[in-house]
Amino acid sequence: MAKQRQHTMKKWAIRVGVAIALYTVLGFFVLPAIIKSQILKRLPALTHRNVSIQQVKLNPYVLSFTLRGFSLTETNGDQFASLGELYVNFQSISLLKRGFVFKEISIKRPSANIVRLADGTFNFSNLLTNGAPQTAKPAAKQEPLPLVMIDELKIEDGQFAFTDLDRKKPFERHYGPINVKLSNFTTRPKEGSAYSVVVSTEDGRTFAWSGDVTLIPLHSAGTFKMTGFQITRYAPYIEDVAPIQVLGGKVDLQTDYRVDVTGEEATLAVSNVAVDLSDLQVEVAQPKPARAHIDKLHLSVSGVSLDTAAKTIDIAEIRLTDLTTGVTLLPAPATTQAVAEAVAPTPPEPKPAATQSNKFHVAIGEVVLDNVSFHFVDESIEPHVESAVEEFNGSVKGLTSDLNTVATVDFKGKVNKYAPFSITGKINPLASDLFVDVTISLQNDALTPASPYASKYVGFPLEGGALSLDLRYYVTQRELKAENKLRVDQLRLGEASNSPDAIKLPVKLGIALLQDRHGVIALNVPVTGRLDDPKFKLGPIIMQVFMNIITKAITKPFAMLGSLFGGGEDLDHITFGPGTADFAEGELSKLDTLATALYERPALKLGIAGSVDPVKDREALAKLKLEHKLGEMRMKELQAVGQKVTSVDSVRLTPEDRQRLVKLAYAEAMGLVSSKAPAGRAETVLAHLQTKTNFEPLHPAKTAEQAKTGISGGVVSLADMEAKLIEVTVVTPDDFKKIMDDRAAAVQSYLLQSGKVEPERLTIAASKTVDASFQGANRVNLTLQ
Question: What is the structure's pLDDT at 372?
């Protein structure tokens, strides 16, 4: 019996040994070979890539699986993905747990090479496909997740490379080592797992996540940290969508977060957000080359909560501290402007506003700026222009998207170290009905730093002046009402710069017109319009209105004076009676207005230029000369009979004398008798002329000249005689010059008698010579200088 038992036990021992041996051989040698051969056989067809494996190892006693030296390579030999080692340690307790329990899953030295091809597809697009188009499948009913428990899941020394060929300039980046650690992972409801993810890059950047994660319901909370993020590494993508070039910049970011997902709704809470940005430099090539920079910035956000179910976003505080930033305009090639105009993008069509039901409720307790500064440098002009906004502090409190609520705005700072400015008021930019009631004030900002601009574009450097602004913008129901008050004190220009870029306008005249007797230029430019009008651009409109005022002052100076002091555009001339230096009716009131205007604008000088009408003034002067000649003729007659007459002005003509003398002067002018003819001949002609007003000629015309006179035939009336005498009376250039000078002197004298204008501010221009090409009027023309 004993022997039989021993024999039976021996047989069982042999069987167990054989089984163990078979299990060992199968587990250690046969199954690894089968798994390896099946992977090498089936995977290439599934992945469309070459597959290689160094080793497949099973340990049937500890239920572990090891895969070493696995790689997928493209048909051209490029590596697609690889694993240094995959180790899986399965637990037999899984049978009792009715799930999958792993003591450890570890992946060492994994790598992937993702390429975006030139056609926009990725190099993994054909993965697990046979090249056939994929059709959408109806969504299957979601099954509950199987039980999975992993004591430790880790990835060590991972590598990831990304190449983008779908760009003008290929983009390539490498990430690694990548280390991931997940402890006590489970799919059990309401049980969390701790995790840690650290990703490094080839340039020393680090991305780190740590915290806990729960799958059912989906929940994660932890900390995200990014250090040494070099913005230039990803600049090509920024440059693809914006005409800029990123030259430098580094970002450090840290935040705590919490995510909860229930069904299709998610909530996100972010707290202790801290962003540090330094050495950011961005260069814009068009339309004018510029380089923007942020030397330093610290951004902190606290109390952030996002609830997608309730559609709410709440932020307790956003704080910007020690922001130092600025813009530098760079010298531009001569063709930059032309190129910019050629490639200027078409403005996008305005998009319709989103419906209220799709919007989130937003509430921001406070936005704080603490010690912010902005610096501006223009290197495109010589000498360079520099300006700065410093000590910029303040806040916006109570921002919400609720209707009928407003936030309080209160900011203060200094421009160029000394000029204080402030922005105060109330706004509600988050609500669908935008509301703004803001006042902007700037006091006594020195203008001399902008002197290079004035020298180049205005033609004169700035030697003095201070700018003050008082602006108010009121917006409700998309309707804007703006007040733009500008005050410039004691503006002074230097000597002309002779810049070829300067505007071809009398700038000093424009300043003299706008500057009052206290040295102040005060302008008020109200602007109204609708913000939803795509043609309404506030900045350009304000600038255009200012330019219109300045242009009007320069190009129509008397119209500007007329709008300020009355009188209209015709202040630019003073009218006189024909042939005289006597003011026409109503002209003295114009002179009074002009005197007041010159008093209130002490920098203005007035040019006075006399003028004549070659027709009206000549006729009037000829009449005066004829009357003088008739007086001389009568004076000689009186002297011939022994009367003492010393001047023509003392001679008085009776109607009979005048009629007789006109006829005699006409006879002399027409050559019927010479003024030096013997008395008998003159008396004969005179007797013939005196017998009747209309008379026949004494003899037929013998010459062409006599035919022109009209005396050779027909009847000549007394009025015809007088008209002919006026026509043939010679009015000399000296006669015209005298009347022009007398008129100019009359204007000068009246203005000086007002006591409001200094003599040195009035200049009489030299009289012009009146010839066949002269065009003028019976007036004095005025110019402002």
Answer: 92
